[in-house]
Specification:
The chain contains 17 helices and 26 strands. The protein is of the alpha+beta class. The chain folds into 3 domains: about 130 residues, Periplasmic binding protein-like II (D-Maltodextrin-Binding Protein, domain 2, 3-Layer(aba) Sandwich); about 150 residues, Alpha-Beta Complex (Dipeptide-binding Protein, domain 1); about 240 residues, Dipeptide-binding Protein, Domain 3 (Dipeptide-binding Protein, domain 3), CATH 3.10.105. Strands 1, 14, 17, 20, 21, 22 and 23 form a 7-stranded mixed β-sheet that branches. Helix 9 packs antiparallel against helix 11 and helix 15 packs antiparallel against helix 16.
Amino acid sequence: MKKWLALGAISLSTLAFAACSNNKNSETQSKPISMPTTYSAAGKATQAGNDSTLNAAEVVDAPFTGITLAVLQDNVEDSDVYSPGGGDQLFKSNKDFKIVKGGLANLKLDRSDNTATITIRKDAKWSNGSPVIAKDVEYAYEIIGNKNTAAEQYSSDMATIKGMAAYHTGKAKTISGITYPDGQNGKQVVIHYTRLSPAMQYAGNSFLWGTVVPYNHIKNVKISKLSSAPAVRKYPVFVGPYKLQNQVQGESTAWVPNKYYWGPQPKIKHINIQVVSSSNAAAAFKAKKFDFALGGLPASQYKSVKNIKGYTLAGAPGLSYGYFGFNVGYFDTKKNKNVMYKHSKMSNKNLRKAMLYAVDLDKVNKKLLSGVQWRPNTLIPPIFKKYHDDKAAGFPYDMAKSKQLLKDAGYKKKGKWYVQPNGKKLTIHFGAMQGSAASNEISRYEVQQWRKLGLNVQMTNGRPLEINSFYSILGEPKQNKIDVFVGGWQLTYEPTPTQFYGEDATYNMGHFVTKKNTELLNSLNNSKAWNQSYRTKQFKKWQEYMNEQAAYAPQSTLLSFTPVNHRLKNFKQAAYNNYLFPTFWDNLELTSNQPK
């Protein structure tokens, strides 16, 4: 499944360092600490344990939205709290993220006729007993491509499906390139493409959608109304090992085994997932209220939880990262494309680079985060070893360089602050998400450094923004409330970034568009890219280009870690959101009915 999930709680960290270094060069770039990825309790699971309730925490500082359909989700919190339902997942993948046989459906790619054939397993059913049918696969594409949809997954990659572009613009009522050999109620779907791409071999690619939707359950709801429909919010159905028993909107979800699940029945009889704020998370674990945290804990909590009695830490380098974005344009709603405005306030790349070099992220990570969080050097996380450019410098702290960049670009000081090269006043509005006290302090530090540089930077509305307000502003086609922002994203197993940085990508909220960027993005999955060495080379060229342009820049990445209670067996912390994959929940067992 392809999802760029907004990480409202991507954990930046604790800080109280008004006296940050003024040295020209920062500390050496920090690296992650090592941590086991698995934990399994000693001894055998017990009937009493498995008949009890497993309690999982979702650490976030705002209520979860409550959207159960994966195709409509745009934040990781919803994915987490509904994950026992299986995340609507179609395919199984191996340790290299490649799609393999054995999931809800199997995939066959045929390069000779540019088709992808999806065959649903015969015993696949929804949690209400209805069979999973071909229309359930196809309708996800209708939701993504509909011009009035709330889904934000559409991009030029998806437009390689024949007929998708015409459907997306409203010129056609159906997607001509998606066919059903056995009819809509059958078990097979054939998708016809103008070309196949190498990315399609991997889970999470942006050409082939990897989840199903319950068509018969939602067919009477307009696509534009799906996000708020009771069928999605109050009475959802799932294809995974558990079904929803009840929920408290925005606060918790409770689960029991799904008797119609096609895989092995899960061992644990009750799952409860509860939202807990980042400031209360460590105390909650010390009080043994939770067995583990779904999305991991904030980096700032590491020292508080690493030695809790009855728990062992498990963690893995994440696919999530925080990033700086600059508003350089707008979204043309008539053409459904982002447009870069060359006279925008943040259009000068020297200004953008000056702001990036002025923040000492390495010092923060080294002194305060024990290696749990570190400064990445490109927009492709290092976990993608084949594609990541580990030779790139990124933006290490260098205040002298920041000042020189501004000077070279014609910015001059007028009193306390720099003004624009044309002499006009320069006030920069910074959008940051509200989070823990620690992450809020980081935001204030960033403002402090920029003001120390001589830029009049002010927080939008004077304070960090609540996550929904933050994305509401950035989601407007044209806005002037936020000039620079820090966001966070959760990537999937296939790192093609078109869906985030492409010309027609809804998630390109800074609206960065150039001919060169489009060419490089397209080259990642053209016919030459079936050659791995070529594809790797193009990925590195794109990273180099994005660092040179600095319209988006990496800000942080971290180890995804959680305490795991000593009554839990077969826990595995994966790089990606492993809780979406049924085998995670299938395998869990408990050795006692109370936390150790």
